[in-house]
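pasting for the record
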Amino acid sequence: MSDWTGLEIVVGILLLFFVPGYFVTKATFPEWRVRGEDALVRAIEIGTLSFVLSVALTVLVGYALLVGGPQGFQAAWSDPVLEAVLFVIAIIALGVGAVRGAYRATPPVRTPALAPGEDGPFELARELTRLDREEKRLHRELDRVGTTEQQADLESQLGAVRARRTELQRRREAEYAA
């Protein structure tokens, strides 16, 4: 133990518990930046994911070395196979992240999974919820209005909201039927 320097210990701990996971995280999510109003949250997400991925990679690589080696696997500084494999994984992930734009000043633009104008399930649910709230609001206002002119205007708005909700539901049902 006295043969190890403080630098070796720090590098070993970083290599086992942070570096491979960090580079894999940056390669997987190149658009993540620690800036703006969500900087603290994003830093916590990146740090946590880096730690968890590094531990998972260490366990998986250690298990693969244990099963794949002819004499099993012995973790020792004199034979740093685990550290070398983790270093190679980190270098590969660094290269992938660089190609995907993880280290550029401006984040890469993520291509949407849906075609422009199409709603995903979350957007559709959000819009249907908004339309339901709007319909309830219009019903409450209809109960309070006094003039027939205001009542006609509110009924017109209510009809438009109902038509929009019905159209969204019909389109979604047609997508599921196809």
